[in-house]
Amino acid sequence: MVVVRPTTLALLLAFTVLPLQAQDRFITVASTTSTEQSGLFAYLLPIYEQQTGVKVRVVALGTGQALDVGRRGDADVVFVHARTAEEKFLAEGQGVKRYPVMYNDFVLIGPKSDPAKIAGGKDIVAAMKKVRAAQAPFVSRGDRSGTHMAELELWKASGIDLDKSKGPWYRDTGQGMGPALNTAAWMNAYILADRGTWLAFKNRGDLEILVEGDKRLFNQYGVILVSPDKHPNVKKELGQQFIDWLISPAGQKAIADYRINGEQLFYPNASDPDA
Amino acid sequence: MDDGRVHAPSDLLALLPLSLENVVFAAGGRRIIDGVTFRINAGLRCMIVGPNGAGKSVLLRLCHGLLSPTAGTIRWHSPEFARAPGRQAMVFQRPVMLRRSALANVVYALKVARVPSELCVERAREALRRVGLDSLAASPARVLSAGEQQRLALARVWALKPEVLFLDEATANLDPGATHQIERVILAMHESGTKIVMVTQNLGQARRLGDEILFVHQGRLVERAPAARFFRRPESAEAARFLEGELPW
Amino acid sequence: MSSLAAAAVQALQLIVGADPKLLEIALLSLEVSLTAVAIACAIGLPFGAAIAVGRFPGRHTLIVVLNALMGLPPVVVGLFVYLLLSRAGPLGSMGLLFTPAAMVIAQAILVTPIIAALARQVTEDAWEEYRDQLRSLGTTKRGAAATLLWDLRYSLVTIVLAGFGRAAAEVGAVMIVGGNIDGVTRVMTTTIALETSKGDLPLALGLGIVLLTIVLALNAAAYVVKEAAQRRYG
Questions:
Q1: How far, in Å, CA of A41 to CA of A36, rounded?
Q2: What digits encode the pLDDT tens for the residues C59-78?
Q3: Do C96 and A17 touch (CB under 8 A)?
Q4: Cis peptide preceding B17, ω within 30 of 0
Q5: Which CATH fold would you assign to the domain A23-104+219-268?
Q6: What is the Cα–Cα distance from A220 to A99, expressed in whole angstroms?
Q7: What are the structural domain ranges in chain A?
Q8: CATH of the domain at B87
Q9: Which structural domain, as residue segments, surrounds residue B55?
Q10: CA distance B90 to chain C (A)
């Protein structure tokens, strides 16, 4: 068999592996698609990089997947929005400490035609009950994301047993926030979404915000350093530096300054003891 | 001493004589060669003739080593030497040229035979000169005419000064002019010491070039005679009928 | 304006505007896919040719498996490479996950069977024609494989382009092993996926048109070079 000349092999390796293992200082953060798609990172990270010279590489997945990436030690920091899952992560010894960072809220989106007649309501539980009663089409993310978990808790809070109630009206798509919104727009269905993704979303079709403002719709974000004890490769100093910045006045201000069309998306609350 | 010439037959390293003993070749349930025994010695130009399907091509390929006999033995005088590239060569009815220049095709054969790189190009040019193709040395081999390609095939094998050259209906696809040119090259190769063993359907060619004739029929060597006598007074009935054109294909 | 028309306008604006971000993404796409194809050729061409001229037990089974591997789903390859390169996996200490190197590896795995299987077919067909002549000249099996590969170079160009097309078009593998990290592992296809999921369909389609244009340009260039060489060298 013809053997690849050693020089060719060396060139190929040099071309691929070496430049790409650039000795920039960087950390890997596993976060959620909704955070990424809201554009927050594109705004925040250049500020951080300028201040510290450290690059932040964000891998955007669903909350469940992001925590799993942390469990495998493939990220230095996880930054998600599902308190229960985060506590579990810590209980497993996978993370060092949880710091609350900011919150945004979920909104219940639906078609202008509003078959379940929930528009303008301030009570999310009542609204969900009406959607279920009307058997109006509802799109769920179904992907173990923070949004999905919040949705499930709301059904529970409404006293609705999803397993019994599931019918053709409930569409479990297993998709990220954006694709799920695409599906809902196409189907003219109701859907629970985080405000950030919604504001950045362009393919709205006939959908609009129908219910918002209920305290139960608040969505808390937490950041955790992946445990260097379990995963020796974790960049603990650089990771902690990033966390410290997020909860610092400078970081919190930067978060508050992020707007889409003049609207603030995320509300920093690192100093809130209950968050 | 490497002067490129073939050593005298008495030399220990000589390939000839080639001995076939009770050689059988069967394929697809049929015996294509059905027990053939003869010896090919150095010197005379040998023509193998016979009707279609007689097994002439198969016999040639067995001698050259492209096929292995089902039974019987085929033995060169010095077998290890016979395996070296270029010592005994073959030219096919349809030559296969590589997608490179004419010169590069000849150089290829020299490189396969491990001729030192510095000598390859010069030897290749010399071979092309001998067959009259030196002006086409840089042409892509595949665009040459059939006659030119066949001459190139001869140059390619001649560059290595083989001791034996097998030819399998080498001019069957060529017009009379090209055929004549090929025959001249074959004669020149014989002059310079290469043993010629040729299969041909062209009886005129057999008459022109042949010193001795091997007549093959239904997988057997039926008659072997000096050319003059074979054409004037064949001994076997099959040979007589063949010459009269009466043998069924 | 309909989405399709909007997409066409976007595509034009992107190409003419030469947005640096787009340039960066397009260059990374080319770098990853071309490198993957180069590796795939270095492995696949000799391997395919060797199978074509070789005779060994299990040869037919190997050919069937090789042909089947042409249909490897990219997302499955991505998953496999992810598990290999993850810190929790066997090659984790190399730290290759979420880097372009990981994407190159995944695409190389995807493309190599295509190159090998097609090279095998093309070489085997030619071997029928060349076999007697090459054996007569004394070429070894190994030499024959190399000789055939060079003689078949024009057909091989098409095979390599097929492999490149596969690499440049796939999104499943590079998404998983690359993580679609902005500025690091974001390529054309993952950007298109991202913009689609953000609902910016005209931009996504526009990017798609840009990608197609790049691949078309590459194919055209290869064709021109091939035709010129064929005319000169036959």
A1: 6
A2: 999 999 999 999 999 999 99
A3: yes
A4: yes
A5: D-Maltodextrin-Binding Protein; domain 2 (3.40.190)
A6: 11
A7: 23-104+219-268, 105-217
A8: 3.40.50.300
A9: 18-244
A10: 6
| Interchain contact B/A (3 or more Cβ pairs less than 8 Å) | no
Q: Which residues of C touch A18 (CB under 8 A)?
A: none
C-alpha angle C191/C187/C113, rounded to 5°?
Answer: 120
Strand partners, A32: A61
* Distance, CA of B96 to CA of A246 (rounded, Å): 73
Contacts of C139 (CB under 8 A, 6+ apart): B85, B112, C147
Q: Tell me how far apart the alpha carbons of residues A91 and B153 are, in angstroms, rounded to a whole number.
A: 80
Assign residue B81 a region: left if phi > 0, alpha if psi is -120 to 50, beta otherwise? alpha
Measured in angstroms, the CA of C203 and the nearest CA of chain A are apart by 11
The helix (run of H) or strand (run of E) holding residue B31 is: strand B30-40
Residues of chain A with pLDDT under 70: 1-23
What predicted TM-score, i.e. pTM, was given to this entire model?
0.86
pLDDT at C203: 86
Domains A23-104+219-268 and A105-217 share a fold: yes
Does the domain at residues C30-201 carry the CATH identifier 1.10.3720.10?
A: yes
Instruction: Say whether domain A105-217 belongs to CATH 3.40.190.10.
Output: yes
Which ipTM was obtained for this model? 0.90
C176 to each of A182, C89, C111, C168, how far by Cα in Å? 22, 15, 17, 15
Is residue C171 within 8 Å of C192, Cβ to Cβ? yes
DSSP three-state, residue B71? strand
